Structure formats: structure tokens, C-alpha cells
Amino acid sequence: MNLYKIIIEREDDVYVASSIGKKVAKELGLSCSQQTKVVVSIMELTRNIVFYAGKGELYIKPLPHCIEIVAIDQGPGIKNLEEILTQSYSSKTGLGLGVTGVRRLMDEFEITSKINHGTKVRAIKWLNNGGNKY
């Protein structure tokens, strides 16, 4: 199975990445609602890269029973990550729900962020899993 790497620098890249994610999710046999969750998650992650980091990469990896999404940037990092994850933070530019939205939409979610070194998010949507743990 192919690994897709998309460089994220502009708003157009957000749509390219989400289109590839939709195609891969469909080919894997994810349901329409699962495909939508993957696409929305990709859009949230890549928009965050464009807006906060300026540049990064998104990897879409189809596996036998899931699709893995990894977003990596070398931006400023997230200094208030714990507040964001507990939803006690509201950003000046939005609701601050992008990362927590991805966590809720996907079945597995990991995030690491280091100030002045960037952020990495890894999320998985399992094939035929109607629910998730968040």
C-alpha cells in the first residue's frame, strides 16, 4: 500500500490533502461517515499547519485495517496543549477545537508538541469501527 506525502504550505494544499484522504479512505472501504471524519480531520490538521506553522507535511498511510494520518510541522509548537486538549482554551482566531475535534473524530490520537520545534499529530481511523473512544 502506498504512503502519500503532501507538503502543506498554502490553503490549496489543504484541499489536495483532503481529496487524497477521501480517495484512500474510500478505496480502503471506510463507510461514508468514516470517510467524512477522515476528511474533516485532515482539513483541521492541515489548516492548523498553514495558519500556525506556515509549512509542514501530511502523511496518509493506508494499512490493511485502517488509515493512518500523520501531520508534522516545525512551527512554534503549542505552549498551552493541555488547556487545548481539555477544551479550557479558546483561541483568538477560532474556537480552539480543531485538535480536540480530530481527537473525537478519529479512533486513535496522539499529539506531541515542543516549543520552537513543532508539533506532530498521529491519528488513525479503523475500518468498520462505528464509534471511537473519545
Plain-language structure description:
The chain has 134 residues and is α+β, with helices and mostly antiparallel strands. It has a single domain (4-126), classed as Heat Shock Protein 90. Helices cover 40% and strands 28% of the residues. It contains four helices and five strands. The protein has a five-stranded antiparallel sheet with strand order 1-2-3-5-4, covered by helices on one side. The longest helix has 22 residues, at 32-53. The chain is globular and about 40 Å long. The mean pLDDT is 89.
- Helicity range: 25-40%
Write down the secondary-structure element order. Answer: EHHEEHHEE
The CATH superfamily turns out to be Histidine kinase-like ATPase, C-terminal domain
Q: Helices and strands: which structural class?
A: alpha+beta
Regions with pLDDT < 50 over 5+ consecutive residues?
none
Beta content = 25-35%
The major β-sheet equals: 5 strands, antiparallel
Mean pLDDT: 89
Radius of gyration: 14 Å
The CATH class, by name, is Alpha Beta
Q: How many helical elements?
A: 4
CATH topology value: Heat Shock Protein 90
- Please give the number of β-strands: 5
Distance between the termini: 28 Å
| Strand line-up of the largest beta sheet | 1-2-3-5-4
Spatial shape: globular
Under the CATH scheme, the architecture is: 2-Layer Sandwich
Estimate nothing, just give the exact number of structural domains: 1
